[in-house]
Amino acid sequence: MGEQVSRRSFIKAAGSSLAAGPLLIAQAPPGKIYRACVIGNSKRGGYGHGLDVTFQNIPNIRVTAVADPDEKGRLAMAAKLGVQNAYADYREMLQKEKPDLVSHGPRWVENRLEMMTAVAQAGAHLYMEKPMAESLEEADAMLAVAEKHNIKIALAHQVRPAPAAAHLKKLLAEGLIGDVLEIRTRGKEDARAGGEDLMVLGTHCMYMMRFIAGDAQWCFARVTQNGKDITADDRRAATEPLGPVAGDTIHATFAFANGVQGHFASQKNKEKGGGRFAMTIFGTKGVVTFPLSADPPIQYLADPQWYPGKPDTSWQPIPGAPSNSDPSGLKGGEASNKRIVEDLLKAVESNGQSMVSGYEGRAALEMILSIYASHLAGARLALPLKDRKHPLGTLSK
After folding, report:
1. Is residue 8 part of a domain?
2. Quick check: is 397 in a domain?
3. What is the 3 state secondary structure string of 56-111?
4. Are 168 and 279 in a shared domain?
5. Is 108 found in the same domain as 251?
6. Does 182 lie in the same domain as 88?
7. N- or C-end of the chain: fewer Cβ atoms within 10 A?
C-alpha cells in the first residue's frame, strides 16, 4: 500500500542518506516535463549501479515516487531522492503516479518480465539493470511486450556511452591500429570466475565487442569445472538470482564480419581475483587496450608486432580522447547513467531506439548463452540461436 513519507521520518532518513550532500537538480527548461519513478528492492538486488539517482541533473525530468518492498530502504530512498511518495508495491505506484519514465534498479534478474510488463502497460519507458533476462525466451517476450505497448527499453550498458569509447571507434575506422584482426575480453575472474562472471561481467564484454565489430555470426566455446567438461546437470545457482550458471573456466570464440575474431575468457585462479576485466583490440599496425569501466582510460601501442619492449615504442593515450565526465559535474557511472537516460529520451521523442536498447541487451545475452549452447553441442553454432530456452535448463529440474 502506498504511503506518504512523514516530515519526521523523511528528515530522519535524510540525515544519513544526504550526508554527502543533496542531489543536484537543475532548473527545468520550457517544454515537456517527464514524470519519473524509481523501482528498487533493498533486500533483493538493491538499486543496481546507481539506477536510483539516474534521473539527477536532467532538467526536464521530475522524480515523483519510489517503490521498495522493504520499509527501511523505502524511507531512506525517498529521503535520498527528495520525494514524498513511497510505495511498497510498484504496481500501485505505477497506477497512481502515471510516470513517463521508470528506472528499475535491482540487479537480480528475477521477475524482470513481470515488472517490465507492468511498466509497459502503464505506458512508461524503462531504464533497467543488466543482464536483460535469464533466458532468450524471456528476453523475446519482453521485447514483444515493449513493441505491443510502443515503449522503449534501455539497459545499463554503462561503458558504451562513454565519449572516449565513441572516439575510439572513430579512430579505429580511420586506421589508428590498421585493420582490426581480433578482440580479446576477460571477466573479473574473482570468486565468481566462470559462469557467474560470464553472466554479470561478460555482459559488458559482449556488448562492447558488438559495438566495435557488429553482430556476432557464430560461437565456439568450452566450459569446464575443475578441469572437466561440464554437462547441463552441472548447472547451479549463482550467488545472486541470475538463472542457472555452470563452470569455473570459460573460453569462447566469436566470429564477426570482415574476418574479425572475438574472444571471451573467465578462469578460476589461485589468487583472489585476476583484475583483468578489460578489452584489448589487435590490429595490423598496433594494439588498443582499456578497462571496461564507465570512464575508460584508453591506451594504444603503435607497433605491428604488438611488442612494447622496443626502445622507441610505448603505450600512450589515444589521441584526442574527450573527457568522460558530464558537463553537469557527474563522473563515472553517474555520468554514464545520465547519458543513457538522455539517449532514451531522444529515442522516445524520435520513435527510434536507444544505443543501449533492449534489442542490444538481448543480443549481448544471446552471445552469453551461445557459449553454453556451443559447448554442450560440441560444435560451432550460428547466431541467432534457434532454441530460445536456456541451454542449461532450469534450476528446478
Report:
1. yes
2. no
3. CCCCCEEEEEEECCCHHHHHHHHHHHCCCEEECCHHHHHHHHCCCEEEECCCCCCC
4. yes
5. no
6. no
7. N
What is the span of the domain harbouring residue 59? 2-158+344-350
Report the CATH number at residue 207.
Answer: 3.30.360.10
**Residue 65 one-letter amino acid:** A
Put the strands of the sheet holding 2-4 in their side by side order: 2-4, 85-87, 61-67, 34-39, 101-104, 125-128, 153-155
Residues written for the chain: 397
Total domains, the chain:
2
Please check whether residue 145 is in contact with residue 118, taking contact to mean a CB–CB distance below 8 angstroms.
no
First to last CA, the chain: 36
Cis peptide before 384 (omega within 30 of 0): yes
| Judgement on whether residues 282 and 168 belong to the same structural domain of the protein | yes
Give a yes or no: residue 229 inside a domain.
yes
> Are 228 and 366 members of one domain?
yes
The domain that contains 105 carries what CATH number?
3.40.50.720
Residue 248 and residue 365 share a domain: yes
Which residue(s) pair with 186 in the sheet?
Answer: 265, 278
Copy the grid coordinates of residue 254.
566469436
> Going residue by residue through the chain (397 aa), what tens digit of pLDDT does each one get?
455 554 334 334 433 333 333 343 334 445 789 999 999 999 999 999 999 999 999 999 999 999 999 999 999 999 999 999 999 999 999 999 999 999 999 999 999 999 999 999 999 999 999 999 999 999 999 999 999 999 999 999 999 999 999 999 999 999 999 999 999 999 999 999 999 999 999 999 999 999 999 999 999 999 999 999 999 999 999 999 999 999 999 999 999 988 999 999 999 987 766 678 999 999 999 999 999 999 999 999 999 999 998 888 899 999 999 999 999 999 999 999 999 999 999 999 999 999 999 999 999 999 999 999 999 999 999 999 999 999 999 997 5
Q: Yes or no: say if 60 and 40 are a contact pair by the CB < 8 Å rule.
A: no
* DSSP state at residue 386: S
